[in-house]
Design goal:
Length: 82
């Protein structure tokens, strides 16, 4: 699967992933290969990215996620710097 995380000012992440967990407005949910097409709003929280090198966490400030044909696009309002 291909994941892209975009904020208004930069491309925050782009790469191949095996799983992604996002902070949906109705609760966190995980996206795996061949997930049904979906568009969902996101709350502030952790985007947990799993790829061949391990697990990465990006904390976002709300946004929207779109999943279609194993392409995941997260349009985040911002990224929290740690």
């Amino acid at each position: 699967m291909k994941l892209t995380i975009i904020t208004p000012d930069k491309l925050a992440y782009e790469g191949d992933v095996t799983a992604v967990t996002v902070p949906g407005s109705a609760g966190s949910f995980q996206i795996l290969k061949d997930h049904a097409a979906i568009v969902s709003t996101l709350d502030d929280g952790k985007v947990i990215i799993k790829d061949i090198s391990g697990e990465h966490v990006i904390i976002i400030k709300g946004g929207v996620v779109e999943v279609k044909d194993n392409n995941i696009i997260v349009l985040a309002e911002g990224i929290v710097q740690e």
